[in-house]
Design goal:
Layout: H1 8-23, H2 26-34, H3 36-42, H4 47-72, H5 77-95, H6 101-114, H7 120-131, H8 136-165, H9 175-203, H10 209-216, H11 220-228, H12 231-249, H13 253-259, H14 265-274, H15 278-289, H16 295-314, H17 323-343, H18 358-369, H19 372-386, H20 390-419
Helix pairs in contact: 1-7, 1-8, 1-9, 2-3, 2-8, 3-9, 4-6, 4-7, 4-18, 4-19, 5-6, 5-7, 5-9, 7-8, 7-18, 8-9, 8-14, 8-15, 8-17, 12-17, 12-18, 12-19, 12-20, 13-14, 15-17, 16-17, 16-20, 19-20
Length: 429
């Protein structure tokens, strides 16, 4: 029997969902992650200032998650996603002008709104509906794996565009030449985000009509109270905040390559891009095995993997001229991180969170789960600036070790909770 996830209409919709789900974060996050040394140089920023930009973004996102989630329970996802993409792309034009630090803070606050308020809850709910009652793990693994492939591809294209428009070798190119080459990367990224908005508008399926009618009859405040009474919601918050710390640390892989391993800017950018290819690879594996076991047990394995990899960095085992150890340790941390990311929203059904309240639940979970957007990047930036070189990176990975343990304990508790329901039928609300 043909997999229901691969029906023509559904496949086109999830493809557009994957494209929009990653491209909307291309400008504020993917470019600084892949090109971190270059990004700091062309915008004349230090690590703490870049972390502060992400903190501004996170603060605005935090304010957007809850009511944005409620809105996603009331309107068609395709409309919300289209508007988000268009407004996010416009911010790229501002970024390409190399604005002042003050304007950059306003821009990142703007992006915190455009990428979350109308978008985030809509994307998660659309994916949950697409997965149905029996394919949640596969659906979310496809989503995150596809997003990872898009991020990696765009990162590689960005590196190619950057190197193509450099008139001189990277080492001999001056700041003006680097800024001009990077401007093309920004403008190309903005164009891709805008184009995806048009594709979503004209080709994404309408969906969820029955659920939308039901939700529109409910009171938003009542929905919030109902969701907060669900114990699994609080455990998912802890799981996501712990896993998201691992994802925030991926921002410094290219910087580690530059500052500790002494790679040049192009080599460091390639590290930032190439590690992104691990994400789709891990997610494909997860998609193949997810429905053969409980999702939460795979998350537990992910946290153990992340703990092992981050410990290798934290204890200073990855140093100059140890390229093999560097790649190996990076792969371990990234594998654990991406495995958890692929699944942490798929356990909503195991946690008995009603489908009709998905947007509200996602909003509330995200308020806590994504707070690293506010506090992690300034802390990471401070440590890297205050303790340059290997030591600062060790401190960053020590923080990740602690969060890996925190997430592991929450996952074990979640598994214990869901075992109570193992002999009962999980409602497909």
């Amino acid at each position: 029997m043909k997999d229901p996830l691969l029906k023509k209409g559904s496949f086109l919709s999830i493809t557009l969902l994957i494209l929009s789900g990653e491209l909307i974060f291309l400008l504020p996050y993917v470019l600084p992650r892949v090109f971190r040394p270059t990004f700091l140089e062309v915008f004349n920023l230090n690590n703490l200032q870049l972390g502060s930009l992400f903190s501004v973004y996170g603060t605005m996102a935090l304010l957007s998650y809850v009511y944005g989630g409620v809105i996603s329970d009331r309107f068609q996802p395709k409309k919300l996603i289209t508007v988000s993409l268009f407004f996010t792309a416009l911010g790229g034009v501002v970024l390409a002008s190399y604005p002042s630090y003050f304007i950059l803070k306003i821009l990142y606050g703007y992006w915190g709104f455009t990428t979350v308020f109308l978008f985030w809850g809509a994307m998660i709910k659309a994916t949950r509906v697409w997965g149905g009652s029996k394919n949640q793990g596969k659906a979310f693994a496809f989503l995150d794996g596809g997003r990872g492939l898009v991020a990696a591809s765009m990162g590689s294209l960005g590196v190619l565009i950057f190197s193509t428009f450099l008139t001189n070798d990277i080492e001999s190119a001056n700041l003006i030449e680097r800024k001009e080459a990077f401007r093309y990367v920004i403008l190309f990224s903005s164009f891709m985000v805008f184009l995806t908005g048009f594709l979503v508008l004209f080709f994404m399926e309408k969906d969820q009509k029955d659920e939308l009618k039901k939700t529109n009859s409910l009171n938003s405040y009542s929905n919030i109270k109902t969701v907060l009474k669900i114990q699994s919601v609080w455990l998912i918050m802890i799981i996501i905040i712990s896993a998201y710390m691992g994802y925030k640390v991926t921002d410094i892989y290219s910087l580690y390559a530059s500052e500790v391993m002494l790679f040049d800017h192009i080599q460091a950018a390639n590290i930032g891009s190439l590690q992104l290819y691990l994400r789709p690879l891990v997610c494909v594996i997860i998609a193949l095995i997810a429905d053969k076991t409980s999702y939460i047990y795979l998350i537990i394995i992910g946290f153990i993997t992340m703990l092992i990899g981050s410990s290798m960095f934290a204890f200073g085992m990855v140093q100059l001229n140890m390229n093999f150890v560097f790649y190996f340790s990076l792969i371990i941390v990234a594998t654990g991180t991406y495995a958890i990311r692929a699944l942490y929203f798929s356990i909503m059904q195991e946690g008995r969170i009603p489908l009709i309240l998905t947007g509200t639940a996602v909003g509330l979970i995200s308020v806590v789960g994504y707070t690293p957007d506010i506090f992690a990047t300034p802390i990471i930036g401070y440590l890297l600036d205050r303790y340059p070189g290997l030591l600062g990176h060790q401190y960053v990975f020590t923080i990740l070790v602690l969060f890996s343990i925190f997430g592991l304990l929450a996952s074990i508790k979640f598994a214990s909770l869901t075992n109570k329901y193992s002999n009962k039928e999980i409602d497909d609300v």
